[in-house]
Amino acid sequence: MPVIAFANPKGGAGKTTSALLLATELASKGAQVTVIDADPERWISQWGKLPGKPETVTIISDVSEDTVVDLIEAAELTAQFVIVDLEGTASLMVSNAIGMADLVVIPIQGSSMDARGGAKTIKLIRNQEKMSRRKITHAVVLTRTSAAITSRALKNVSQQLQAGGIDIFKTAIVERAAFRDLFDYGGTLSTLDPALTSNLDKAMQNAREFSGEIIARLKAAVAAKAAA
Ligand SMILES: Nc1ncnc2c1ncn2[C@@H]1O[C@H](COP(=O)(O)OP(=O)(O)O)[C@@H](O)[C@H]1O
Ligand SMILES: [Mg+2]
After folding, report:
1. Range of 40's domain?
2. 144 CB less than 6 Å from ligand 1?
């Protein structure tokens, strides 16, 4: 089943946050999700130890550059979605995981627009495409954008990336307390208390739209593969 890897050698780009949002969103819809936690910070593994983790989420925590390929392959056999949260460096582990991915999501902080990490990731993907002689679907998601940011500013950024031939998610992941609270309190967005976490409804809508776009890209990738 599809493998979705989150990659950007830049730390703090929002890889772990967007990976957990996708995992919890898919799991709360009933999908069996395996997260390969290849981030040395192990945030998702720690989240998994808090109460409220859906039964449908399995977390694999012990991952190295030698084992990542086999672990992804094994997870594909049992899970409906395999999500790989990668470390914030360009390493053999990252290349290996990208080589196994059906979709690579490249989070880039919208506020700082530090696209350098993103460019590095795209170069890695292009190398893996050459080595494996197949296309690897990839797209940029802008993260930590301000809820107040003008849609015009985001449009400009999107246009710049698109001019470079880079696919970009229409949904940006907004800076939200809810996305931080998940890591502190565990569970999913729907188990957080709306009285204690501000704008929870908006955060939930944001996560839904993001995962909807992921599904659409996976479907397109499958269709393209079938047509090839
Ligand atoms: N959309 C967001 N809203 C609020 N905080 C965020 C958001 N995205 C990331 N953060 C915070 O920014 C920091 C880095 O994010 P993280 O997802 O761990 O990035 P990475 O995995 O790329 O290093 C964390 O403290 C995280 O809680
Ligand atoms: Mg991380």
Report:
1. 3-227
2. yes
How many angstroms separate the alpha carbon of residue 175 from the centre of ligand 1?
Answer: 9
For 195, the token pair is: 């009285």
Which amino acid, residue 56? T
Report which ligand 1 atom has the smallest distance to the Cα of 177: 4
The DSSP element (H or E) to which 121 belongs, if any, is helix 116-132
Distance CA 84, CA 72 (A): 8
Residue pLDDT, tens place only, 68-80: 999 999 999 999 9
CATH of the domain at 201: 3.40.50.300
At residue 150, the pLDDT reads 61
Task: Quote the ligand 1 centre to 178 CA distance (angstroms).
Answer: 11
Kindly tell me if the per-residue pLDDT of 111 is higher than 80.
no
Strand 103-109 versus strand 3-6 pairing type: parallel
pLDDT digits (tens, 9 = 90+) for 197-209: 999 999 999 999 9
Ligand 1 atom 26, closest CA: 180
Tokens representing 80? Answer: 């409906």
Mean confidence (pLDDT) of the chain: 92
Q: What value does the mean pLDDT take over residues 157-168?
A: 81
| Tally of structural domains, the chain | 1
> What does the pLDDT read at residue 146?
85
How far apart CA 203 and CA 121 sit, in angstroms, is: 27
Which pLDDT value is given to residue 113?
61
Residue labelled with tokens 């944001």 = 206
**Token duo for residue 64:** 């190295």
- What interhelical angle do 15-28 and 200-227 show, nearest 10? 90
